[in-house]
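INFO  loader      accepted 1 record
INFO  loader      residues=187
INFO  predictor   begin
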Amino acid sequence: MKSALNKIFFLILFSQSTNMFSQNNTQNSNAMETANKELITKFYTCFQNKDFKGMQACYADSATFSDEVFVNLNASQVKGMWEMLCVRGKDLKLDFKNVQTNGTTGSAEWIAYYTFSASGRKVVNHVTANFVLADGKIVKHLDSFKFYKWSRQALGAAGVLLGWTGFFKKKVRQGAMKSLNDFMNKK
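INFO  predictor   done
INFO  writer      dumping tokens
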């Protein structure tokens, strides 16, 4: 009888501790989801305000970034890129929506409205962002948008005629990296 009572007591105790552990995990998971969503929201709010220092603070020291133009940037380069875009984007406006997180990943949609400085042409660029997040920072950031659509807006006839080619995309990427390197070297 005593042995049966001990087993019942142990099962009750085990069951309660498992429930407490499960509740703690859920609470920790919810807290992480909230913190990650706040991080992405802060990033885009800073972008709206052209607060490149606030944007830079959202990245881990080992962060990486890629999009259709800037490929495989390290943390220093991505921080420099956002500074360059904020400083040079005199008429830059930004909207963002659909900030979502799931564990250590996140996503958002954003639209940039600006004048492309190289051509003086107006651009409305629709971007989907995906993130890997750790310890309250962005570790990996991948933006995607339709390059051909962007090139037609930003570069006019050249974008219409050549924007779909790999050669043209490569040339745009090289020019963007040169611009970023020049900007970073002047600091």
